[in-house]
Amino acid sequence: MNAPADLSPQVPAVDFARQSAVVARLHAFMPAAQVLSADEDTRPYECDGLSAYRQLPMVVALPDTEAQVSRILATCYEMGVPVVPRGAGTGLSGGALPMGDGVLLSLAKFNKIVAIDHAARTARVQPGVRNLAISEAVAHLGLYYAPDPSSQIACSIGGNVAENSGGVHCLKYGLTVHNVLKVRGYTIQGELVEFGGTALDAPGYDLLALVIGSEGMLAVTTEVTVKLVPKPEKAQVILASFDNLEKAGNAVAAVIAAGIIPAGLEMMDKPATAAVEQFVHAGYDLEAEAILLCESDGTPEEVAEEIARMEAVLSQSGATRFSVSSSEAERLRAWSGRKAAFPAVGRISPDYYCMDGTIPRKSLGEILLFISQLEKKYGLRCPNVFHAGDGNLHPLILFNANDPDELHRTEEFAAEVLEKCVALGGTITGEHGVGIEKINQMCVQFRPGELAAFRALKAAFDEKGLLNPSKNIPSLHRCAEFGRMHVHGGALPHPELPRF
Amino acid sequence: MNTDHFSQAIRTAAETGKPLRIRGGDSKDFYGQALAGDVLDTRGYAGIVDYEPTELVITARCGTPLAAIEAELARHKQMLAFEPPHFGADATVGGMVASGIAGPRRAAQGLYYGSVRDHVLGVKLMNGEGEALAFGGTVMKNVAGYDVSRVIAGSLGTLGLILDVSLKVLPCPVASRSLRLALNEAMALSKLCEWGGQPLPIGASAWHDGELCLRLEGADAAVKSAAARLGGEAVPQAEADTYWQGLREQTDGFFAGDAPLWRLSVPATAPAITLPGKELIEWGGAQRWFKTGAPEAALRAAAKQAGGHATLFRAGHAGKDMLSVFTPLEPVQARLQRNLKQAFDPRGIFNPGRLYREF
């Protein structure tokens, strides 16, 4: 989404005395070039991948050693200054939105692959290393890092840890939480702490599982040890066309019912297919109401066996057309459209808003119908791409951000879709995170007791509430206000503004 | 099904300061530090709440027998992929999650299997005030809020009473066959590491006393070609089933006797560990069992040296009142873990001291 700064939180003007005091303290152990405070220097950090929310940070710190990270945190802890950690800044939920009275802690200089252990099949990397760079660095060993978010060319592993990122292959190979063995980092007090380990099942509570997906609110990550897996010898993808969405949805269930776990199982609806086809010329069936991409990987024998079973199921499920990739080039071409769906949509609309709800697969038909009704209600188009295998939806609402009313309608549209996901037994976010963007919908998904438990958990790690506060977990106040707005018909403009 | 009796018991415990000892089928009471408190029996709260094979998710109440869940899954050719040990006919799903113990398939290659926590999608938990809270859900991908449900796995009931749990399930492998190879310990460890880096369908592995046993699982063609490539002697199916079941349930002869049973979790690449007594290796080298009377300090030192940690899995004749069952925590970890316990159970009424004596 590339909308203007319309939804940004309103905070008081910078407190220059405070800013100077923080800068002076940081300069005691960091060179001037690593501590930014002038507007023109901090401007590049004012937003992440969700640019509708912008905020200049009071100070940007660019440490390049763990000792500096530790001292920055200890200093901020002592001074009571909030800290927002940031990786590559590609996040889609505003999880790295700075605070006007806080330090933006950029881990961009932590961009090295520290060690690759071939025998153990692990890589120790700094958080700023890009997801794809890990797989590239170990390709010659026949290994790769499995989670592959569509943004893998740009997103960094530190951000993947913060969001528990998925990708198109996670049904079979798992999410970030299944592929990270250890996170080394620092508490808000500046103490070194290690979660997990290269031996399985670290003693005590599984804090590693808690830290992954915690949106940088429990500790600051400085090193990640990931699991590497053998690259499958072969992969093939089936492109199957369906003349209605429900049949396609049922085909997904039928594949799973047949005992098959595809390496990837993705769906695109007709408008999404049309948008990407003119962008990448993947040879998609433009007549189909929905197309499925169903991938098998493994040894050549395994793939041949599985593809035959998939073909049988898809054809029984009423596929009107299907083709199997006959070469690696053909397979990559089939995927090129799906991976390029967001930029392709960006070409047909000035702006788009990407949602990330997850639903039980069986409700796919219902949510699609609901979305098509909302298209009429709000007068906005919404092509759909899904991680169909795991029920994770990415509807893309097309709008023009220069039209304030369209932006407002988009926000309402999105909120309705997310709340419907919760009503269907799903969740408001499958892989992009809550951040600042979906914080109101947290009040829909969770009850006060659960939110209170989240806050107590946060306090167990960060008693003063200084590490990326105001993200992910809403205050009860905020939910009360949001609830009240709902009761009164949601008439207030921009309900996502933090008001408390 | 009503949970009022649970909230009542919890509120009473909170008021009187008398802790509760949560118990299902009484199959894993041996695990962890000494037990304390009045028994809170979960078995009355049982039953599968929801199971749709095409969603790959099952939701069940805490007191549901693990055997009932596995039987229902088997009817649809699905399974709990982490092969949880029952350790008794009455084991419940709540106890399985609370103990967080996985079986032989834990470190399988290929399709992602993993441990108990890797398959927990959601829990409904009753906190120290008798209030039911829902975390996670029934979908594969869910990053709303903190991932509390995975932390509940292996927490030994110290963070709250698990009411319901939703677990990811997977299809049973189409084909399975086991092989046996004569290899010494060092060779077996080295081979396991080598194979681990290759796309082979090794679903389980175990080495003991000069013999490495492998279970190949997956597509028929893949299992056949791997078996041909790895060689060794084919183990007849019935014998293989008994063997893997014996490891999973610790009924195999290796586990017999009254000597303490230690579990060393180490990087799979760690070299052979020499300690008195006998040894059995699982999980491609990542889990090493020792039946030994060696002192705690020797086990802890060996585990640390190998880059891992040691658990006194079964105390046997040694008793455990004076010992720490789990590896002691570093100070920062210890503080965070204590704080977490405090956050969920401020009055300290759930299984106090079962995980660490300090909390």
Termini gap of chain B? 32 Å
Low-pLDDT stretches of chain A: 1-5, 484-500
Strands of chain B, total number: 17
Low-confidence regions of chain B? none
- Beta-strand segment tally of chain A: 18
- Strand percentage of chain A lies at 15-25%
Give a short summary of the structure.
The complex is a heterodimer of chains A (500) and B (359). Chain A has 500 residues and is of the alpha+beta class.
Describe the overall structure:
The complex is a heterodimer of chains A (500) and B (359). Chain A is an alpha+beta fold and 500 residues long. Chain A is built from 18 helices and 18 strands. In chain A, strand 5 and strand 6 form a beta hairpin. The two termini of chain A are 26 Å apart. The N terminus and C terminus of chain A are likely disordered. Chain B is of the alpha+beta class and 359 residues long. Chain B has ten helices and 17 strands. Chain B has an eight-stranded antiparallel sheet with strand order 13-10-12-11-15-16-14-17. A five-stranded antiparallel sheet of chain B has the order 3-4-8-6-7. A two-stranded parallel sheet of chain B has the order 1-2. In chain B, strand 15 and strand 16 form a beta hairpin. The radius of gyration of chain B is 21 Å and the shape is globular. Chain B starts with a helix and ends in a 15-residue tail after the last helix. The model of chain B has no long low-confidence stretch (mean pLDDT 95). Chains A and B meet through helix 6, strand 9, helix 8, strand 11 and helix 9 of A and strand 7, helix 5, strand 9, helix 7 and helix 10 of B.
